[in-house]
Design brief:
InterPro entries: AGP_Transferase, Aminoglycoside_PTrfase, Kinase-like_dom_sf. Helix content is about 40%, strand content about 20%. It is an alpha+beta fold. Strand 2 and strand 3 form a beta hairpin.
């Protein structure tokens, strides 16, 4: 029997790997349902769904390697990053999934709530929180919904050479802001934004992408801390927040 590898595990969900099969166990069966439907609808390479027995979703491994990880330089070529941008454009041009996405009012309320928590617990200096809260304001504007992945971290995009071979982890897919996907893909790898946008094409707003870098890092930090992750690791969320302090 193949060795069982725990890929990620926390109180909400766990992912195990057995050979070339990934078993995703989620406390909310709606996540698995949405993930399977989103992968079926997405016009870009996704893992094959092998079987689904709530609360478990079994999917096949995709070929290739992830674009990279937070905190380390990406070994992927500029062409691979551009291919990722082109794949994101193809997704954003696809018909919307038939379930609701995030509401602007809810995003704004979450930002206020998480900034208050960061200030109260002093996990980063207050001036860092306030500076990034001001930058994040640019993301809080009405957007035209597109089909977004919703959690497009570089570890979720796989490439082989200069081609995208698969995009994984679709449980947050929904109608949403296109700039959010582009920001999450380049979070902590801002030097790759030009390459991504070369593949994505026209219509990207760099100021809004920059705002989402700040907003995402602010709202994700408490969840990461409470679930055993370290947003202060090199190249991760706190570094993203601190980097804004060096800008004019």
């Amino acid at each position: 029997m193949d060795e069982v590898e725990v890929v990620v595990a926390h109180s909400q969900r766990a992912t195990l790997r057995v050979g070339d099969v990934f078993l995703k166990v989620d406390g909310d069966p709606a996540h698995a349902e949405r993930e399977a439907r989103a992968m079926d609808m997405a016009p870009i390479p996704t893992p094959a769904v092998l079987w689904r027995e709530p609360p478990v979703l079994a999917i096949a491994a995709v070929p290739g390697k992830a674009l990279g990880v937070l905190g380390e330089p990406s070994a992927a070529s500029p062409a691979a990053w551009a291919a990722a941008g082109a794949a994101v454009r193809k997704l954003h041009d696809a018909p919307l999934p038939p379930w609701p996405g995030p509401r602007l009012d809810d995003v704004a309320a979450e930002l206020d709530r998480e900034c208050a928590w960061l200030l109260a617990h002093a996990v980063v200096p207050a001036e860092v929180v306030r500076r990034n809260r001001a930058i994040a304001e640019a993301a809080l504007r009405p957007w035209t919904p597109v089909f977004v992945h919703g959690d497009l971290q570089i570890t979720h995009v796989f490439v082989d050479g200069d081609e995208v071979t698969g995009v994984i982890d679709w449980s947050e897919a929904a109608p949403g802001d296109a700039m959010f996907d582009l920001a999450i893909l380049t979070l902590g790898h801002e030097e790759r934004l030009d390459e991504v946008l070369a593949g994505y094409g026209p219509g990207a707003d760099r100021d809004v992408i920059r705002a989402w870098w700040s907003l995402r890092s602010l709202v994700a930090s408490r969840w990461l801390i409470e679930h055993g992750f370290d947003p202060d690791a090199r190249g991760c969320e706190f570094d993203v927040l601190r980097s804004r302090m060096r800008e004019p």
